[in-house]
Structures are given as structure tokens and as C-alpha cells.
Automatic annotation (TrEMBL):
This is PEGA domain-containing protein. InterPro entries: PEGA (IPR013229), TPR-like_helical_dom_sf (IPR011990). Residues 130-191 form the PEGA domain. Residues 1-25 form the signal peptide. Keywords: Membrane, Signal, Transmembrane, Transmembrane helix. The chain crosses the membrane at residues 266-287. SUPFAM superfamilies: TPR-like.
Length: 315
């Protein structure tokens, strides 16, 4: 029923904006600036997108519609792309598609239609979280779930869908950092990164005291390991709850899907934290075993040899 209602909404909305999705034979509107071959491909992809939507695959449908838009841009297609995002629970994608639809359609969109789409946009906002990301250094590249969003200082908050999001900060000359954060709809959260500079090549440690980098790296490794253990435990609990729901008489498909999403979210978070723990542990080990062969400097260092670890230096 839910899928059918989405389809009805798609067709009705399409007819209101004279979108080709309401009539498969039309496809994207002809344009003197579009190559006829590209226009034919755009129509084919548009029709394919409609079929995929009817088959209950809004993600694949969206990809085809976006490709049709690239080949033969038309603001009308953007609304249907937004509906596909909405059907796949990507609220941020739907919001941006609807906003682009209004921005590109401008005066061509009837006032009543404009108000209707704005109402749809407002209904999406409670499902979207906003995250303020800052860093101790300017020009730090920020990515969310491996998708670049810009460099610090970011001009505005990052809009994100609910769930566990992986935030990565990187800059040349500094250790990269990755953090995970769990967001719910309407959350207004913040996340900061304190970047640690990489040691300069050949730099000596200060006399009378060693570098703090190994301690920082081991501390971070420990914290990540604890986080990995906690999220791993939560993933196991979520998986057990999922199995209980599947075996429970009368369980709905929505309950099963929610349980699977929860298990998947915690599993991804645990995998990310385990990978980060291994990476940070390797870095910590490297700095712990780093040595200097210049015994005349009066420094001591650890040397890795085939037989084990030895201490070299002058005392």
C-alpha cells in the first residue's frame, strides 16, 4: 500500500507540473540546445526510471532520472527526482531536489504549485539533522560517509539524514581523523577536530623529554578500541532483536526493515571504528619504536631487529 501510494503521488504530481513522467511516450521536452541523440537517450532513461519506480526500486529510478536530467535538463524532472529520494528515505536528497525545482522553475511554476512544494519541504525538515563541523586548523577537508562536503571553516551547517554518520577530517601535514556520530531527526549537533601535526622529516625530539605523539596515538587507539567494542556489542544486540522480530508472529515488514536498518547501522559503525583502531594503533606503534641512529647526540632510541627490539644510544 505504501509503495502504491507513492506511485500515485508521483503521477499526480507529475501531471500538475506537466512532467513527462505522467505520460511515458513524451519523455523530456524537446529543446533546440539539446542534441537529438541525447534527447532520445534521456527519454529512454526517463521511461526506464518510471518502470523501476513502479517495480518498487526508487533508488535505481532516481539514478535513471538524474541521468535523464543531465542529458536534457528540465526543472520538471527535479520534482520527480525528489519523490524518488523521499521514497528511499533520503530526506536531505529530497529537500535539495525540491529546492532546486523551485529555484530553476521560478516564474514558470504556478503560485499554488509553489506553495504546495514549499509545504512538502517543510514536512521534510523535522526528519533532517544539522551538524556544525569545526577544526583546529583552517583548510581541513571534511567528508561525510566518504563524500566530500568542503573545507573548514564550512560556510554553513551540514544537513544529514538520521543514523550513524562517519565524519573524516584530513589535511596535508596532519594526521587524518575519523569520528562517528549518531544523529536523530531535528538534531542540531556539533563536532570538532583537534588535528595533530605530522613530525617534520628528520626532526629531533627535545632533549630531556620525548615526543607526546606516541602517548596521544595510544590514547586515541584505546578510545577507538573501546568505541569499537561498544558498537560491536550493540550490533550483536540489534541482530538478536532483529531475529526475535523476524520470528515473532504478526511482525510487520516495516518492523523487520527497521530492525535490519538498526543492525546495519551499528555494524557499519563497528567496522569503521575497528579500522580506525588498527590504523591508529599502527601509527602509535611506529612512533613508539621510532629511533635515531645518531648515538653521538646523546639520545636513546628503540631499534627493531630480526631478533627483537634493542635500545641504542649513548648514556
Amino acid at each position: 500500500m505504501k509503495r502504491t501510494s507513492h506511485y500515485v503521488a508521483l503521477v499526480l504530481a507529475a501531471s500538475l507540473v506537466s512532467s513527462p513522467i505522467a505520460a511515458r511516450a513524451q519523455g523530456p521536452a524537446p529543446s533546440a540546445t539539446v542534441d537529438p541523440a541525447k534527447l532520445d537517450e534521456a527519454r529512454e532513461r526517463y521511461n526506464r526510471g518510471l518502470r523501476l519506480y513502479e517495480q518498487g526500486n526508487p533508488v535505481a529510478a532516481r539514478i535513471e532520472l538524474e541521468r535523464a536530467y543531465e542529458l536534457a535538463p528540465s526543472y520538471r524532472i527535479l520534482y520527480n527526482i525528489g519523490l524518488c529520494y523521499q521514497a528511499s528515505n533520503d530526506y536531505v536528497g529530497a529537500l535539495r531536489a525540491f529546492q532546486r525545482y523551485l529555484a530553476e522553475g521560478r516564474d514558470e511554476i504556478a503560485e499554488e504549485r509553489h506553495a504546495s512544494v514549499n509545504k512538502e519541504i517543510q514536512s521534510l525538515r523535522p526528519n533532517i539533522a544539522s551538524l556544525t563541523i569545526s577544526s583546529s586548523e583552517p583548510g581541513v577537508a571534511i567528508s561525510v560517509d566518504d563524500v566530500a562536503v568542503g573545507q573548514t571553516p564550512l560556510p554553513e551547517k551540514v544537513l544529514l539524514n538520521p543514523g550513524t554518520r562517519k565524519i573524516t577530517a584530513s589535511k596535508n601535514g596532519f594526521f587524518p581523523q575519523t569520528k562517528s556520530i549518531v544523529l536523530a531527526g531535528s538534531d542540531n549537533a556539533s563536532l570538532g577536530f583537534e588535528l595533530v601535526a605530522l613530525p617534520a622529516p628528520g626532526a629531533k625530539e627535545k632533549e630531556g623529554g620525548g615526543s607526546a605523539l606516541p602517548y596521544v596515538a595510544w590514547g586515541l587507539t584505546g578510545a577507538l578500541a573501546v568505541g569499537a567494542g561498544v558498537t560491536g556489542y550493540l550490533a550483536l544486540r540489534a541482530n538478536a532483536d532483529q531475529n526475535d522480530i523476524i520470528d515473532r508472529p504478526g511482525a510487520t515488514s516495516g518492523q523487520v526493515e527497521d530492525a535490519r536498518d538498526k543492525t546495519r547501522t551499528f555494524s557499519i559503525a563497528a567496522d569503521c571504528l575497528v579500522a580506525a583502531t588498527v590504523l591508529t594503533g599502527g601509527i602509535a606503534l611506529y612512533f613508539s619504536l621510532r629511533k635515531s641512529d645518531k648515538a653521538a647526540s646523546g639520545e636513546t632510541a628503540a631499534r627493531v631487529t630480526p631478533g627483537g627490539i634493542s635500545i641504542v644510544g649513548r648514556f
